Amino acid sequence: MKDLTGQYCIVRGSGAGVYAATILSEENGVAEMENARLIHYWSGAASTMQIAMEGVARPGDCLITMIVPYLKIMGVVAIIPATEAAKKNIAEVALWKI
């Protein structure tokens, strides 16, 4: 299994949603992350895999939350390393908050 510690990734939880974050640790379906943003809704990508490779094509239509310094989720079902282009794209999406 590849060690993703320190890498920016797209993380899908079974009930917690999809996140963009840097991995601190992952073991037995539990991931600890830093500088995490919840990707509540995306537009302009067919899947989380496309988000990890390219980011989103319609950032103005996406709902991506503010950054939290630390997050731990259980029930991780996928961790996809993101490209630098995707990381930059996601960082440029306006913060969604009410």
Structure description:
By secondary structure, the protein is α+β, with helices and mostly antiparallel strands. The protein contains two helices and six strands. Strands 1, 2, 3, 4, 5 and 6 form a six-stranded antiparallel beta sheet that branches. α1 crosses α2. The radius of gyration is 12 Å and the shape is globular.
Highlighted features:
globular; 98 residues; alpha+beta; 6-stranded antiparallel sheet; single chain
Rg? 12 Å
What would you call the structural class?
alpha+beta
Note the total helix count. 2
- Please identify the top-level CATH class: Mainly Beta
* N/C terminus separation: 39 Å
Proportion of strand residues: 35-45%
User: What's the β-strand tally?
Assistant: 6
How many domains, as an integer? 1
CATH-level-2 architecture: Roll
User: Rough shape?
Assistant: globular
Mean residue pLDDT: 96
Biggest β-sheet strands, sense, barrel: 6 strands, antiparallel
Assign the CATH topology.
SH3 type barrels
Order of helices and strands: EEEHEEEH
The low-confidence parts are: none
Tell me roughly what share of residues is in helical segments: 10-25%
Provide the fold topology:
Layout: E1 8-13, E2 17-27, E3 30-41, H1 48-54, E4 63-64, E5 68-74, E6 76-81, H2 84-91
Antiparallel strand pairs: 1-2, 1-6, 2-3, 3-4, 3-5
Helix pairs in contact: 1-2
